[in-house]
C-alpha cells in the first residue's frame, strides 16, 4: 500500500501530514512555505509512494465556500498537472485549527510553544487526515 498525504493549505504555510504505508496511523510530517510546496512534494514523491492527496476544504458555518478557497483551487489545478496519476480528495476542515490548539493545550505545551503557527498547521493537517481515516 502507498501513503495518503494530507495538506492544510494556507497562503503562507501549508501543514502536511501522512499515513504509514498501511494507512492506519496519521502523523504530522512538516510545515512548508506554500511557495515551496510543489517542489517539496516533488522531492517527497521521488522517495515515497503516495496514492491519494487530501486537501482541507475550508467552509463557512452555513456550508458555503471560505474566502481562502480562491487560493486553494488554483493550487489544486497545479497539483493535478504535476501529479496526474494521484487522485485528490477534499475534506471538510472546519474547526481543525481550534482543535489543533486544544490538542497542544491537552498535551501540555506551554503558551509560547502553542503560538507556533507552523505547528498548528501541521497538527491541523494531521486532524484532516485522521478524520478521513475514521470515515473510511
Automatic annotation (TrEMBL):
<keyword id="KW-0963">Cytoplasm</keyword>
<keyword id="KW-0540">Nuclease</keyword>
<keyword id="KW-0378">Hydrolase</keyword>
<dbReference type="InterPro" id="IPR037027">
    <property type="entry name" value="YqgF/RNaseH-like_dom_sf"/>
</dbReference>
<dbReference type="InterPro" id="IPR005227">
    <property type="entry name" value="YqgF"/>
</dbReference>
<dbReference type="Pfam" id="PF03652">
    <property type="entry name" value="RuvX"/>
</dbReference>
<dbReference type="InterPro" id="IPR006641">
    <property type="entry name" value="YqgF/RNaseH-like_dom"/>
</dbReference>
<comment type="similarity">
    <text>Belongs to the YqgF HJR family.</text>
</comment>
<keyword id="KW-0690">Ribosome biogenesis</keyword>
<feature type="domain" description="YqgF/RNase H-like">
    <location>
        <begin position="2"/>
        <end position="100"/>
    </location>
</feature>
<protein>
    <recommendedName>
        <fullName>Putative pre-16S rRNA nuclease</fullName>
        <ecNumber>3.1.-.-</ecNumber>
    </recommendedName>
</protein>
<comment type="function">
    <text>Could be a nuclease involved in processing of the 5'-end of pre-16S rRNA.</text>
</comment>
<dbReference type="InterPro" id="IPR012337">
    <property type="entry name" value="RNaseH-like_sf"/>
</dbReference>
